[in-house]
């Protein structure tokens, strides 16, 4: 029994720095989001959520490094729902179009639901026109 308790204590000590870093990162993200205007914050929380979902979903888009909800067209806000079909994300050096519907809490700090559909790759010849070359 004593060995089990010691093992649990050692595991807790080993895991706590990882959890502390993760909590600290989340706190910094939330603090940064809180400084944004509500409509900008709304787009950012939806972008962050999409990036996390793409990473978790695995291939072929599991390494997104940029998401822009308004890249190819302006999304529309209706109450607590942001909807668009002109988003773009970059993964593996290529940009891909996506459409989405994202609902968030009234303070725009947390995503409640996110439905998205990945479309075609954005042709390189269109990247400059949409400002994708600078990201």
Structure description:
The protein is of the alpha+beta class and 135 residues long. The chain has two domains: 1-35; 37-130, Nuclear Transport Factor 2, Chain: A. Helices cover 39% and strands 30% of the residues. The protein has two helices and five strands; from the N terminus they run H-H-E-E-E-E-E. Strands 1, 2, 3, 4 and 5 form a five-stranded antiparallel sheet that branches. The chain is globular, with a radius of gyration of 19 Å. The chain starts with a helix and ends in a 14-residue tail after the last strand. Mean pLDDT is 82; it is low at 1-12 and 18-22. This is DUF930 domain-containing protein. InterPro entries: DUF930. Keywords: Signal. Residues 1-20 form the signal peptide.
Using brief descriptors, characterize the structure shown.
135 residues, alpha+beta, Nuclear Transport Factor 2, Chain: A, 2 domains, 2 helices
Short description:
With 135 residues, the chain is of the alpha+beta class. It is 39% helix and 30% strand.
Structural class: alpha+beta
Mean pLDDT: 82
The SSE string, one letter per element, is HHEEEEE
* Alpha carbon gyration radius: 19 Å
Report the major sheet.
Answer: 5 strands, antiparallel
CATH overall fold name of the largest domain: Nuclear Transport Factor 2, Chain: A
- Cα end-to-end separation: 56 Å
Give the fraction of residues assigned to helices.
25-40%
- Total count of helical runs of at least 4 residues: 2
């Amino acid at each position: 029994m004593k060995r089990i308790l010691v093992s649990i204590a050692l595991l807790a000590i080993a895991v706590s720095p990882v959890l502390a870093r993760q909590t600290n990162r989340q706190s910094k993200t939330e603090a940064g989001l809180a400084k944004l205007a509500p409509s900008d914050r709304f787009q950012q929380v939806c972008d962050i959520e999409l990036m996390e979902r793409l990473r978790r979903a695995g291939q072929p888009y599991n390494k997104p490094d940029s998401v822009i909800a308004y890249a190819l067209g302006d999304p529309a806000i209706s109450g607590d729902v942001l909807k668009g079909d002109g988003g773009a994300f970059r993964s593996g050096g290529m940009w891909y179009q996506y459409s989405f519907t994202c609902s968030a809490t009234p303070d725009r700090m947390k995503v409640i639901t996110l439905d998205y559909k990945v479309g075609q790759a954005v042709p390189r010849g269109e990247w400059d026109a949409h400002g994708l070359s600078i990201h």
